[in-house]
Design a protein that fits this description.
There is one protein chain. The longest helix has 4 residues. The protein contains one helix and 27 strands. A hairpin with a 2-residue loop joins strand 12 and strand 13. The model has no long low-confidence stretch (mean pLDDT 97). It has a single domain, classed as Beta-galactosidase, Chain A, domain 5. The radius of gyration is 19 Å and the shape is globular. With 325 residues, the protein is mainly β. The structure holds alpha-D-quinovopyranose. The site of alpha-D-quinovopyranose has 8 residues, from strand 24.
């Protein structure tokens, strides 16, 4: 079945393109300091490409809804009480919910509204046993434009105890070209999770002070001391959880969320994958702000719980507010 394409337009000039394949954000255009629409999210040239095997093998998940469990789960699975649930995994590690997970499912377009605060609501039923997870899930993904803000809200309910951790995997480049190197970055996090060589959290929580991960003051994004961020930050109290500013476009993005963590990911490049307008980009072309629970929380008792019980509602709220500086 061919994916559906949807465009939402806000009175303040934001244009948001989506598809029900993976409840994916395929394009986001923001007026820059000269009022020129700037394409600030990396995507593919057409929606069919998102479904191609050639694209899937890169596993970049461009703009997609990620789950059932974003990030990595170790140990080949997790336990709830006395029950161990084995997940689909590679060498004991599952990434982003496993193969053919939520980002590769065709979601339903449940509801859509135009007007001053346009939105689209996608829904999906994920059956018990999907990639090894227990519980039949009812999932919803809502994208809404409100003034100069993109709001993404994920909710889910289950008929049996399970774990869940969704996020959105948009790759931002606020200039719409070039590199993110040198963009002004702020991350409201004085701590981060140490990860091992498999990028699985070791369980140790470290301070960012005197490390390449200290963005507690607005700082030029740099790659000294590492080959790019792929780092789970523990978010502090305070409305703004992160911000990014690109001087050529003059666009600043402020990120808020109700989640305890944010994985920042800055790929060095997109390998052989030809993204939309690929000729415009250089090294470190984009940055992801993956708002979520801690990776591998089901196997780390001192991490915030990712358990979802019947009668409860999982809710992940993210907002990306844009302004011109
Ligand atoms: C790599 O480790 C990174 C992940 O964090 C990212 O989400 C993925 O590429 C697209 O596996």
């Amino acid at each position: 079945m061919k994916p559906t394409e949807i465009q939402l337009n806000s009175p303040s000039g934001l244009k948001l393109d989506l598809t029900n394949y993976g409840a994916t954000l395929t394009r986001l255009q923001i007026p820059d300091k000269h009022g020129v629409l700037t394409d600030v999210v990396i995507g593919l040239a057409n929606v069919e490409e998102y479904t191609s095997e050639d694209y899937k093998k890169y596993n970049f998940c461009l703009g997609a809804t990620i789950g059932r469990y974003a990030g990595r789960i170790s140990g080949g699975g997790f336990s709830i009480g006395e029950n161990f649930y084995e997940l689909s995994h590679q060498d004991g590690v599952q990434l982003h919910g496993g193969k053919h997970s939520l980002d590769q499912q065709l979601w339903l377009v449940d509801q859509m509204e135009e007007g001053d605060t346009p939105f689209v609501l996608f829904s999906l039923k994920s059956n018990a046993g999907d990639n090894g997870y227990p519980g039949n899930l009812n999932l919803f993904a809502k994208y809404q434009l409100e003034n100069n803000t993109l709001k993404i809200t994920y909710t889910a309910t289950t008929d049996a105890p399970t774990v869940i951790n969704l996020t959105n995997h948009a790759y931002f480049n606020l200039d719409g070209q070039g590199t993110t190197h040198g963009n002004e970055l702020y991350v409201n996090a004085s701590r981060y999770l140490e990860v091992d060589e498999r990028l699985v959290p070791t369980g140790r929580i470290l301070n960012v002070e005197d490390t390449p991960y200290d963005y507690t003051e607005k700082t030029a994004l740099h790659f000294k001391g590492h080959y790019g961020l792929d780092t789970p930050f523990i978010l502090e109290e305070g409305k703004i959880k992160a911000s990014l500013y690109a001087k050529h476009s003059g666009i600043q993005m402020n990120v808020t969320t109700n989640q305890p963590a944010m994985v920042l990911f800055t790929p060095q490049d997109f390998g052989g994958l030809k993204v939309r307008n690929s000729e415009l980009f250089q090294g470190f072309p984009a940055i992801c702000f993956e708002c979520q629970n801690f990776p591998d929380a089901p196997n780390q008792p001192h991490f915030p719980s990712a358990l979802l019980l019947p009668g409860e509602t999982y809710r992940n709220e993210m907002s990306y507010q844009f302004e011109i500086k």
